[in-house]
Amino acid sequence: MVARKQTSIKVDPVAWEEAKKIFKEYGITASDAINIFLNKVRLTGRLPFDMKLPSERLKQAIKEGNKGEVEEFNNINELIKDL
Description:
Layout: H1 13-26, H2 30-44, H3 56-67, H4 76-82
């Protein structure tokens, strides 16, 4: 068996604690889960879930939202029409 490599990563503490609870339900450790993830990436050559880059429109909306420039809608139909 190959020797394990110890590493240090920075993670979101809330996500870490919640994920550890789920790993426990599966009977695996956080290290096991990370190794499963890394091996899945290695074997498939891609992330094991769909991930898309945000569209230019979404990037602009995020930028505007961060500036407080948020458009308000009176109902869901107005929102859908705008999309």
